[in-house]
């Protein structure tokens, strides 16, 4: 089976995604070793699953993870125990409230009913993912690789942060390269993806990392709405992309664990769907609250009761 088949064959060729990150991946030769991306809104809608039953906004109580839920386990490891999130603030974030907003995201998402969806995923021993995330470290990078990042440059941004001692070398971590709006990724940010996750070896350790660009650069492609519930449309859009990549990096860290027959990981199956929403005082829509803030974050796939998209579990 080809990882993310409809993207690999139909889109990768057309869009010319770089081989740089794929070269860093530690795939096992099963065709599932390419970086996992979140498509821009317009592209995703052209390829999304139109199964209305699968995309209902619902949740169940006391459900147990079982097979036959529209997503399959392929034997690879998961991130178990507390997931350690690391932020690399790349570019110029001076005066941008994103740092406060996205710090609250990482500090509040663990323990939420939303992140609890990931506890429906388990490894070969039946050990489930924990509803626990901590922001374990942050660092700044002042354009060390320029303002247009290749995929290999993004890997090197992570490697530099670890090798310099600014961040620890942590196999239970997910390292997020978060870019300011004046920075792009040359392999297709805004046109081919809004973010992605993959893994690579740094100092003998399998490191999981993610690129998340700033939707202020391309709001029509990667922002959810023009006004975010926290008053920063770019940061509010990044919150949803970070959540997407985090839940995929935890349940499919080496790209050989949980994905469906189309190659879609859990968050892919619910990308750009939000369920029931409320309206914040500034007019923005939101669909969940945790960490002292309102958020507009995409739903995630529940691996129980036949499988479905939801904003919470149970």
Walkthrough of the structure:
This protein is α/β, with parallel strands linked by helices and 314 residues long. The protein has one domain (5-310). It has 7 helices and 16 strands. The protein has a 6-stranded mixed beta sheet with strand order 1-8-9-6-3-4. Strands 2-10 form a two-stranded antiparallel sheet. Strands 5-7 form a two-stranded parallel sheet. β15 (300-302) and β16 (308-310) form a beta hairpin.
Task: Offer a few descriptive terms.
single chain; 7 helices; 314 residues
Q: The biggest beta sheet, please?
A: 6 strands, mixed
Question: Could you state the order of secondary-structure elements as H and E?
Answer: HHEHEEHEEHEEEEHHEEEEEEE
Q: How many distinct helices? A: 7
Beta content comes to 15-25%
Instruction: Assign an overall shape.
Output: globular
| Share in helix | 10-25%
How many separate structural domains?
Answer: 1
Structural class: alpha/beta
Strand order of the largest sheet: 1-8-9-6-3-4
Stretches with pLDDT under 50, minimum 5 residues: 1-32, 45-66
What is the first-to-last residue Cα distance? 31 Å
Average pLDDT number: 86
Strands, count: 16
Global Rg: 18 Å
